[in-house]
Amino acid sequence: MVLDSGDVFMEKAAGEGVGGWNVERNPPGGSSTPTSKDKTTKKEKVLANGLPGAASAPQAAQRRSTPLRCGGRPALRRPLSLEVTPQRQRGSADQREERKILQPPWRSGPVAPSPPMRSLTSPSLAGGSWMRRSESTCSVNYPLSLRAGRGRMRPASSLPHIAKGAEGVAPPPPRPCLLVALRPLNLEQEKLAFFQSDFSYEPQFEYAQPEPRGVLDKYREGAGLFLEQAVGIMECVLRKFDSYEHFEEVTGGGVLPKSQVWAAVRKYLQKEGCVGEVVVRLSDELLSQAVMVVESCRPTLTINLGGARQHWLEGMLRHEIGTHYLRGVNNSLQPWASADGRKQFGLKPANPTEEGLASLHSVLLRKQPYLWRAALLYYTVFHAASMSFSQLFGHIARFVHDPDVRWEYCLRAKRGQTDTSQPGCFSKDQVYLDGILRILRHRRNIDFKMLTSLGKVSYEDVERLRPFADLSRTRIPHFMRDPEKYLHHLDHIVSINELDDSVLQQLLP
C-alpha cells in the first residue's frame, strides 16, 4: 500500500513485487546479463556533452598495460561501476529504455487490460482518467517536497509508473475536474464577509476559469420527485436525536487522529485485497468526507481529516474503495470499458446507480444507518433553485444549527454561481438520494454481485449485459459476498429511515 500524509507517499522498497506489478523489463531480443566485453565497449563510448571523453582512451590503455601480479591476478583498481561521470549518471536514451518500470496492476502481465479511454459521461474532466471519479467533493493539489529514497517516503511524481512520451514535447496541461473548477478562488474572503454581515451578505464568487455554459445548464434544474422522502428521513433523525449535531456525536463518534486513520485504511485495504494499489492522502481542506480520483494512472483517495469519525470512517472506505474503485477495476475488464464500447452496447449512464450504490454502502453496516447526508443534499439543492444564498442559509437552519456546516451545504448547492443573490442551483448532489431510492425500490430484483462485476453500469442494464461479461478476474467487495446478509442490511436501511415500499413503487413504477 502506498500512503501519503498530505505531502508524501509511502512505497515499498524497490524490487518488491506487489499485486502483480512489473518490477523489471529486459531489452527486447537481448540477454538480460551483458558480458564484460559489452560493458567495456559501452564504457569507451561514453560521451560528455556530445564529445568523446578525452581521458577515457589513456585510462583504458593504462589499465590494459597494467602488469599481472602473482598468480596471474590483475592489480586492484577502482571498479568501473564507481567511475561515473554526470553524463553517464543521467544515462543515454538506450540506458533509459532498459530501466525498470513499475506498472499498476491493471497494466501488468500479458493478459491484463490497459485502462480504456475515459467515458464522456465521467465527471472527471482530467485527461487519462479511466475510472469514474467519486462525486463526493472537490480535489485538492498538494505540495510534494521530500526526496525519493529506497524504501523511504517519496513524492508520487517520482514514481515511474508510465513511460514518458517523446522527449522535448511537453504534455498538454490536464484540465481540472468539474468539482475543482467550481471551487471559488475567493472562498475564504467571501465566507468571512458573509459571517461578519450576520449571514445577510450575498457572496460574490470568482473562479479560475468559467465552465462551459452547457455544463452549468445541465445541472441548473433541481428535482423534487423525492422531496417528501428527504424531509421524512431528516425528521426521523431529529425525532430521535433532537439535532443533527447530537446525531453526529452519538452515531459518528470522535474524530480520529492521523495514526488511527492510517491504521483503519490499512486494515480495510487488506480486507479488499487492495494493498499497494491505492494512494491515500489526508487533507484538512475538503468540503466533504473523501474523493477518489486517478492521477497519473494511480488511483488516489484523499480523506478529509475533519470528517474521519470513529464509526463512519469504514463506511467512507466502502463508498470510495469498495464501490468506486472496485467497480472501476471490474469495468476495465469488460468489452464496454471504453466510450466507444459503451455506445456499441447502448449502455445507460452509470449514474444514479453508481453514487446511489456507493451511498448505501457508506451506511450499510452502521447500527443506525440513517440517510441524513443524502437527504439534506437533495433538499438543499431543491430550494437553492428558488432562493439566494442567504435565504437558503436561513432556510436549512431547521435541520442544521451549526453555521459552518450550513455554509458548506449552501456552497455545494450554489457552486458555479458568481452572484449568489440570484436563484439557482448546481443539482449534481441530488444524484445520491435519487440513486439510493431507485436501488432500494428494485432491491429484490437486482443481482448485486453481478452489478458490481459488470463495472460502471446501471442496474437496468445488468441482465442485458450478463451474456457478454468477462467474469474471470472480477472482484467483489467483502461486504457483498453474502447476498442474503447484504439484502438484510438494505431492508434495515428502508425500515430505520421509515421509507414506504408502496410509495416508492408508485414513484418508480
Topology:
Layout: E1 2-3, E2 9-10, H1 36-44, E3 47-48, E4 51-52, H2 56-64, H3 86-90, H4 93-98, E5 153-154, H5 178-181, H6 187-196, H7 213-218, H8 227-241, H9 244-252, H10 258-272, E6 279-283, E7 290-295, E8 298-304, H11 313-331, H12 339-345, H13 353-363, H14 372-384, H15 389-395, H16 403-413, H17 431-441, H18 448-453, H19 462-465, H20 483-496, H21 501-507
Parallel strand pairs: 1-6, 6-8
Antiparallel strand pairs: 2-5, 3-4, 7-8
Helix pairs in contact: 8-14, 10-11, 11-13, 13-17, 14-16, 14-17
Describe the structure.
This is Microtubule associated tyrosine carboxypeptidase 1. Residues 1-130 are annotated as: Disordered. One of its GO terms (molecular function) is metallopeptidase activity. Residues 50-65 have a biased composition (Low complexity). The protein is mainly alpha-helical and 509 residues long. The protein has helices at 36-44, 56-64, 86-90, 93-98, 178-181, 187-196, 213-218, 227-241, 244-252, 258-272, 313-331, 339-345, 353-363, 372-384, 389-395, 403-413, 431-441, 448-453, 462-465, 483-496, 501-507; strands spanning 2-3, 9-10, 47-48, 51-52, 153-154, 279-283, 290-295, 298-304. The chain has a domain at 219-386 and 424-507. The longest helix has 19 residues, at 313-331. The protein is globular and about 60 Å long.
